[in-house]
Design goal:
Elements: E1 3-9, E2 12-19, E3 22-34, E4 37-47, E5 50-54, H1 56-65, E6 68-72, H2 77-88, E7 95-97, H3 101-105, E8 118-119, E9 124-125, H4 127-141, H5 146-159, H6 162-168, H7 175-178, E10 179-183, H8 202-209, H9 217-224, E11 233-237, H10 244-256, E12 261-266, H11 269-283, E13 289-292, E14 311-315, H12 316-324, E15 332-337, H13 349-369, E16 377-382, H14 388-395, E17 398-402, E18 408-415, H15 421-433, E19 445-449, H16 452-461, E20 466-469, H17 475-486, E21 492-496, E22 509-512, E23 516-517, E24 520-521, H18 524-531, E25 542-549, H19 563-572, H20 584-598, H21 602-607, H22 615-624, E26 628-629, E27 632-633, H23 635-642, H24 647-658, H25 663-672
Parallel strand pairs: 1-6, 6-7, 11-16, 11-17, 12-14, 12-15, 13-14, 15-16, 18-25, 19-21, 19-22, 20-21, 22-25
Antiparallel strand pairs: 1-2, 2-3, 3-4, 4-5, 8-9, 10-18, 23-24, 26-27
């Protein structure tokens, strides 16, 4: 027998015999006082729930056969003295050791040291018992998935303090524990391009020279890879590295040199509005700027779309609608597609894919008709692409990839219920706004959540001045929020994940109140796009990201995973490849649009798209549905494609009209379609 372990109880001493880390038996030993000192008085061998009396002398024989005898330090000083006196009477050595009381109560010998002991606030216990206590606490907070529980157990063993770990589940902000990792700032060695060497149109050249002497690294790489020679480019670089100017620089140069107008296309109306205002402020003295969003000819502020303008800022759908309805966009010299990773989105990816194909066709056909028009240069921009080389090849563009992170980025994870999250967000926002960077800017926060209602709910609960920001606000109110944030009058904006990309809020901190966009979990790419908003080199010393995780939380019964499971998938996940996938509905919609724009060239337009479109099947369905007649859209087909309707939506509308339903009822049917599923 290796070890005989003694631990004081209210009945005497529990005795545990171990061999090779396994318990041989346990017993209860009661001592009696004799003239020779304390001696074994009663020895009860435990067998399950029963106790079998054995001769007290048997204990002495067992003790003599043990390699070592240990007494728990948790035994009282009087008890330790009594045991030592008894054993020394038989010339047996004994050592007091630090052990886990919980293990001892279970009849197990578990020595602990400063390297293994876990502090509970009241005592020190072994790692196994501490893990059991943590699991018990987790069961009250919700059923965490394996990744989240592993994270907490790893932290427990690292800090050896159970109370600090359980405090995380109560919304306590302990930066040493919440910190998941840090993405270091890194600087690539790029030969910077001197602005005075660019040989641009004097209007652009003078404008750039008045602002800076050299281009930023990603801009320099773009020039070195043929930007000003008219080469198409895919520019992949982190937020705030200056990639937007790549498209603006060549686009404005071509405008002023009479090579055609610039289209600057973004996925959202809010982004188009902001970019339109920026362009008017920066380039309004050199060129006419207009905006095209959706099917409307009128913006929220009353300005009309001018198709003859030098610079058209638009949403993807705004320009696509112009193509689908046969609008003349004039000579296009440059097309800048911002947030090109939208190509992989399930709902909108196929529409961007189709738009690119149709717009290229428009430019090529115009070049055939006009000898003095040489077509368009294409510049695609993104901060997050998992397969940049493949995408550049598919887009037939030179790849300009710049992996520099201007400032370090800390990523933190903590746990809280939906009700607790606003309180934590309030603490984080206050703490950040109370700090000032070495550049003289106070820390400001973007909070991403999954609904407009939640935006207002959170912003009302923040003590420092904050504002909601989402697509449901009118144009003037959004502009006011942008201005107040830029002037540091707001500590935070609370926005939906749908506005994650592009909107220029120079925040030092990003908080994820939710990891969902509507009722869908974020993808790794969307997550990186959003967290990339934290930290700007001209404003902040570092960026911070806080992911607030609700154990076992979800936002719709259709969601298969819980928020804690999603959190660690996103934090550890690799960027998804940008690929456009087509189901039957998407294939029919894009093929109909291509027939509308290109007629018999529709097959060619389909073939040049990024995704694999089943063209033959789609055309067959279009003929069957009477959306086309040969390679021309029917009247019904034109209405469907001009309103971006999927086939099932079109059929529900037609069915409602035939049944003489009120338009409101038809709209309600469309909104509710698919809810039961």
């Amino acid at each position: 027998m290796e070890t005989l372990f003694c631990h004081e109880t209210d009945r005497g001493y529990r005795v545990v015999a171990q061999q090779g880390g396994k318990r041989l038996f346990q017993a209860i030993l009661e001592l009696k006082e004799t003239s020779a000192g304390p001696r074994p008085g009663r020895f009860l061998l435990k067998d399950g729930s029963s106790e079998k009396p054995r001769s007290p002398d048997e204990f002495i024989e067992l003790a003599r056969g043990a390699n070592r005898i240990r007494i728990s330090q948790q035994t009282s000083p009087e008890g330790r003295a009594e045991l030592k006196e008894m054993l020394s009477g038989y010339q047996l050595d004994v050592t007091a050791v630090r052990t886990c009381r919980l293990c001892a109560n279970k009849g197990e010998y578990s020595p602990i040291s400063s390297e293994t002991a876990i502090n509970t606030g009241e005592e020190y216990i072994c790692p196994d018992c501490a893990t059991e206590e943590l699991e018990r606490e987790l069961s009250f907070r919700g059923n965490l998935t394996g990744s989240a529980q592993d994270r907490l157990e790893d932290l427990l063993l690292e800090v050896q303090d159970l109370q600090r770990i359980t405090n995380l589940l109560k919304g306590r902000l302990d930066p040493d524990l919440t910190k998941f990792d840090e993405i270091s700032a890194n600087v690539e060695d790029v030969e910077l391009q001197q602005v005075d060497s660019l040989n641009l149109h004097p209007g652009v050249q003078n404008l750039l020279e008045s602002r800076f002497d050299t281009l930023l690294p990603v801009q320099s790489l773009a020039v070195q890879n043929g930007l000003l020679d008219g080469d198409d480019q895919l520019v992949v670089s982190a937020t705030a590295t200056g990639k937007t100017l790549v498209g603006e620089m060549t686009g404005l140069d071509r405008v002023l040199n009479g090579q055609g107008k610039m289209l600057f296309l973004v996925p959202l109306v809010a982004l188009a509005n902001q970019k339109h205002e920026d362009f008017k402020d920066e380039y309004g003295d050199l060129a006419n700027v207009t905006i095209r969003v959706g099917a409307s000819r009128v913006r929220d502020d009353g300005n009309r779309f001018d198709p003859n303008a030098d610079i058209i800022v638009g949403t993807y759908e705004g320009i696509d609608h112009a193509l689908r309805t046969g609008r003349d966009l004039g000579d296009i010299g440059t097309v800048v597609i911002d947030e090109v990773h939208t190509l992989q989105e399930q709902e909108r990816g196929h529409r961007l894919d189709g738009l690119i194909s149709r717009l290229k066709y428009y430019c090529e056909e115009r070049a055939k008709r006009k000898q003095n028009y040489g077509g368009a240069q294409w510049v695609y921009l993104s901060a997050t692409v998992g397969n940049p080389r493949d995408l550049a090849q598919a887009l037939e563009a030179n790849l300009v990839e710049f992996e520099e992170r201007p400032v370090a980025l800390e990523r933190h994870v903590t746990f809280a219920s939906g009700q607790e999250k606003p309180n934590i967000e309030n603490k984080l926002v206050k703490r950040e706004f109370d700090r000032e960077s070495s550049k003289g800017y106070r820390g400001q926060t973007i909070i991403f959540t999954n609904s407009r209602r939640r935006c207002h709910e959170i912003s009302r609960k923040l003590e420092y001045n904050a504002a909601p920001y989402h697509a449901g606000l009118d144009y003037g109110r959004r502009k006011k929020v942008e201005r107040m944030f830029a002037e540091q009058e707001l500590s935070a904006v609370v926005t939906t994940a749908a506005l994650a990309a592009g909107v220029d809020f120079p925040a030092s901190q990003v908080i994820f109140d939710s990891l969902a966009m509507g009722i869908e979990w974020l993808t790794v790419q969307e997550f990186h796009q959003m967290l990339g908003r934290a930290g700007r080199p001209d404003y902040h010393d570092r960026g911070k990201v806080y992911v607030l995780v609700e154990p076992d939380g979800s936002y719709h019964n259709s969601m298969e995973m819980s928020e804690d499971e999603v959190a660690f998938k996103l934090l550890k996940g690799e960027m998804e490849d940008v690929r456009t996938l087509y189901d039957e509905s998407a294939a029919i919609e894009e093929t109909l649009a291509n027939v509308t724009v290109g007629g018999k060239a529709a097959k060619r337009l389909n073939n040049r798209m990024i995704g694999d479109v089943p063209t033959k099947h789609a055309i067959g369905k279009l003929l069957e549905y009477e959306f086309i007649d040969g390679f021309s859209p029917t009247h019904l087909g034109r209405v469907i494609t001009s309103h971006f309707l999927a086939p099932d939506e079109a059929f529900r509308i037609v069915d409602g009209i035939r049944k003489d339903k009120h338009p409101f009822d038809i709209v309600a049917d469309l909104e509710l379609f698919g809810e039961d599923e």
